[in-house]
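cron nightly-structures :: item 1 of 1
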Amino acid sequence: MDHIPYGYRIENGLAVLDEKAAEQVRTLFHSYLSGDSLETAANKAGIKAFHAGITRILLNARYLGDAYYPAIIDLDTFSAAEAERIRRAEKLGRVWEPKEEKVVVFPTAFRLCEGTEQFDDPFMQAEYAYSLIETEVFADGT
């Protein structure tokens, strides 16, 4: 099983709410939605975590509840927090679009010239053998 999310504890093999921590998670979501920064919202909630840890809490869909975890927050709050996180990231220019990858075409037509020399040193023999390889590169770059 993965790490138990903040706000839960395991009792008799089942995930149950840790009421104090669950209330801190609710406070974190509500503070963040009221306009507080991640750090300020976490401080108001009494959660000691770094920026990335706070973001992971805001992104964790387990807080909505599933077959194993009871719900801590509702779908509207979770969706609003995600929309706010994206809005803030876009406002600060922190959303990067994936760059279009260049397609590199490697030549596949090779010719090997007849080798006439033999070297005692295997590295020199390998260098000589590689020097005999010729490739065809066409005008269109292929």
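cron nightly-structures :: done
The chain has a mean pLDDT of 88.
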